[in-house]
Design goal:
This protein is α/β, with parallel strands linked by helices and 304 residues long. It has two domains: 83 residues, Multidrug-efflux Transporter Regulator, Chain: A, Domain 2, CATH 1.10.1660; 207 residues, Rossmann fold. It is 58% helix and 11% strand. The strands form two sheets. It has a five-stranded parallel beta sheet with strand order 5-4-6-7-8, with helices on both faces. Helix 13 links the parallel strand 7 and strand 8. It is globular and about 55 Å long. The two termini are 34 Å apart.
């Protein structure tokens, strides 16, 4: 079967769905949803029914991503593409991310698991993971970090539902990820902030890009170094929030860089802490404030 498929897609200008997913970072599930539900893509088909895409399809997906980053709902994108409107000329629009956040808040406040699960499933099926993280979920997580009565319970409820969803998605995506290995580690942090959620989001997004991502939870830097070496990781992503000791982190990172040439990506509060670390520019340590920056950096480092 594999040989027949390779023969049918030998045309260099056509690529299978897994390749357009790798290049654009849009999950194959999402690409199929855009095709079936909204007619945004019309791929060619092999005799066996496998989808094939052209270079124009890749550009179209990237154009869709631009509209989504502006807050346009996926249901409205086809009309905008047909009108060929320019992004810098578009009138003010309502943000789909604000609407989705309002829905999720409503279900969190009511502790209504089925409705919350439905919204999350729909969101992950229709929108790229990095945008869902940057524009919706990370702001939601931060918004639940208050001390008002009931907020701790709401945070715990949302954390558990989202964590279950991400772990199931990660398991499915891992079956088709065969690229370079990326290790993710959360540093000890403020217990009121769930860095695990952001790490799971990064993990899932890396897998969508078909990297072999491995999240090992909370480890100190010495343990993380041992794991990175044992796993033969290409890149390590450190995620940290809350009160972090810049001096201690600087010493560990300097020692690490002397022993290992592996690039390090700093996420969460670690990114904003980077200027205080006093590391030289050749230290191969890359601060990233958003999920989109994290993935772009990883992609660039792998190419380099």
């Amino acid at each position: 079967m594999a040989t027949a498929l390779l023969t049918e897609i030998a045309e260099p200008n056509l690529v299978p769905i897994r390749e357009i997913s790798r290049v654009t970072g849009v999950n194959t599930v999402t690409l199929r949803a855009w095709e079936r539900r909204y007619g945004l893509l019309v791929p060619l088909r092999t005799s066996k029914g496998h989808r094939l895409y052209t270079h124009d399809d890749v550009q179209r997906v990237q154009e869709i991503q631009l509209w989504l980053s502006r807050g346009v709902a996926i249901s409205k994108v086809k009309a905008l593409l047909a009108q060929k409107k320019l992004h810098d000329c578009i009138e003010e629009i309502d943000s789909v991310w604000e609407d989705l956040a309002a829905q999720i808040y409503q279900h969190i406040n009511a502790f209504h698991r089925p409705r919350l699960e439905h919204v999350l499933s729909d969101v992950f099926a229709l929108y790229p993971v990095d945008m869902v993280a940057d524009y919706l979920l990370v702001p939601l997580i931060k918004g639940l970090q208050g001390n008002a009565l009931g907020q701790a319970a709401q945070h715990a409820f949302f954390f558990n539902v989202l964590q279950e969803h991400l772990q199931a998605a990660i398991y499915r995506q891992r079956q088709v990820a065969h690229g370079e290995k990326v290790l993710l580690v959360s540093l000890p942090c403020n217990p009121l902030y769930s860095s695990d959620l952001e790490s799971l989001l990064i993990n899932y997004n890396c897998l969508v890009h078909q990297f072999q991502a491995e999240y090992l939870g909370h480890l100190d830097l010495k343990e993380a170094q041992l794991c990175a070496e044992a796993l033969h990781a290409k890149i390590i992503v450190l995620v940290g929030y809350g009160a972090l000791n810049a001096t201690e982190l600087q010493l560990h990172l300097t020692s690490w860089r002397e022993k290992n040439a592996m690039p390090i990506v700093l996420a969460g509060n670690l990114a904003s802490l980077y200027p205080a670390l006093g590391l030289d520019k050749g230290a191969a340590v890359h601060p990233c404030a958003t999920m989109q920056q994290i993935q772009a950096t990883i992609n660039q480092l792998v190419k380099g």
